[in-house]
Design a protein that fits this description.
The structure is a single chain. The protein has two domains: 209 residues, TIM Barrel, CATH 3.20.20.10; 128 residues, Lyase, Ornithine Decarboxylase, Chain A, domain 1. Strands 2, 3, 4, 5, 6, 7, 8, 9 and 10 form a nine-stranded parallel β-sheet that branches. Strands 11-14-17-16-15-18 form a six-stranded antiparallel barrel. It has a two-stranded antiparallel sheet with strand order 12-13. It is of the alpha/beta class. α6 links the parallel β5 and β6. It contains eleven helices and 19 strands. The longest helix has 14 residues. Pyridoxal-5'-phosphate (PLP) binds next to loops.
Length: 364
């Protein structure tokens, strides 16, 4: 009988990937990036499994508070920092590390009632042009933060790399040089590297590294598979064959009838669709895995199901397990076939998909 649609989270693979990060940056403290529900893997489960990292990073304050309330004691960096006077108070109360990316945050700090001094990271825009203060404003803002009397000294320093996934571009070196130029003489700890920076750019490995995607077994590099870096997939998305039917030459499959059988074909309907996070834009011909056999997608992806052509497969039966990505089928392949990146696919697995945690230690 058909199995449930599940996403398996393999904590042993997660720990393996952490050890790869440690090996590549042995002198850096590791801040595991677990924003967006740990890229869809389940933030609290991942944080609990990573009890030996020095810190965590999230995008929003509510993610950080959830971690503290669950008993996380390590450093927690919040990429957006505080966005109101009330949040300044919460950063202090929960002992969260605030990223200072805009001048208005200094005003918020100065306007807030006296609080226990905050741990802050001054984020410098070195070319990403997303969040970060201009290099010319670093000294002024650094002085302003010191004078506020509300931050712990020395102020920590960070930037974010825009093109570290592409080893052939000069941008990363330029960003690092600019960072070094405008932080020279400042004493605080530094952080530059995301996963691609950590694995690919030695100069980016500072006091702290901030890997995300590599911990989950996704390749941070363009045109690469994660296995190239010795990473293992943490997430495997699975479903099973709900029904089998033979379609005759000339008959169509699925909405809009966009796929037409060129010969008599055996079509399997699999219980997963875009309502679960399988991308609707996956191309016809994208492979799924049936045991060790590959079978191509045919027709449009529906909300609850997809159809695959199993004419070339041996002995397919209702109930057979189908892997959409993960173990045996690199997520990068599907991402490429659906015009996206592994990050978006991981984040997009929906609530209704049952999460199964594998590889947790006894009693842990
Ligand atoms: C998301 C993010 C990271 C992690 O990036 P990966 O490519 O997943 O390693 C690091 N730093 C910042 C500021 C981020 O937004």
């Amino acid at each position: 009988m058909p199995q449930r649609t599940e996403v398996i989270i393999d904590l042993a693979a997660l720990k393996h990937n952490v050890s790869m990060a440690r090996k590549a940056a042995p002198y850096s403290k590791l801040m595991a990036v677990i924003k967006a529900n740990a890229y869809g893997h389940g933030m609290l489960d991942i944080a609990k499994a990573l009890s030996d990292v020095e810190g965590f990073a999230v995008a929003r304050i509510d993610e950080a508070i959830k971690l503290r309330e669950a008993g996380v004691t390590q450093t927690i960096m919040v990429f957006t920092g505080f966005l109101s006077a009330d949040e300044v108070r919460q950063f202090s109360h929960y002992d969260l590390d605030a990223v200072i990316h805009s001048e208005y945050q200094l005003e918020l700090l100065n306007a807030s009632a006296a609080v226990k001094p905050l741990s802050v990271w001054l984020k410098i825009n070195t070319g990403m042009n997303r969040l970060g203060v201009d290099s010319s404003a670093v000294t002024r803002l650094n002085d302003g933060l010191q004078l506020s009397g509300k931050v712990r000294l020395p102020i920590k320093l960070m930037t974010h790399l825009a093109c570290a996934d592409d080893m052939s571009r000069p941008t990363t070196t330029q960003q690092i040089e600019l960072f070094d130029a405008c932080t020279s003489g400042l004493a605080g700890e530094q952080s530059i590297a995301n996963s691609a920076g950590l694995l690919g750019w030695q100069q980016a490995r500072r006091h702290w590294v901030r890997p995300g995607i590599m911990l989950y077994g996704g390749s941070p590099f363009c045109n690469a598979a994660a296995s190239d870096d010795g990473l293992l997939p943490v997430m495997t998305l699975k479903s099973s064959v709900l029904s089998l039917q033979t379609v005759k030459k000339g008959e169509c499959v699925g909405y809009g009838g966009v796929w037409q059988a060129k010969k008599t074909s055996l079509i399997a309907t699999v219980g997963i669709g875009y309502g679960d996070g399988y991308p609707r834009h996956a191309e016809i011909g994208t492979f799924v895995l049936l045991g060790r056999q590959q079978a191509p997608l045919v027709g449009r992806v529906s909300m609850d199901s997809i159809n695959i052509d199993v004419s070339q497969c041996e002995s397919v039966q209702v109930g057979d397990e189908v892997v959409l990505w993960g173990e045996g089928l690199p997520i990068e392949e599907l991402a490429e076939k659906s015009g996206t990146i592994s990050y978006e696919l991981m984040c997009g697995v929906t609530e209704r998909v049952l999460r199964v945690i594998k590889g947790a230690e006894d009693g842990g």
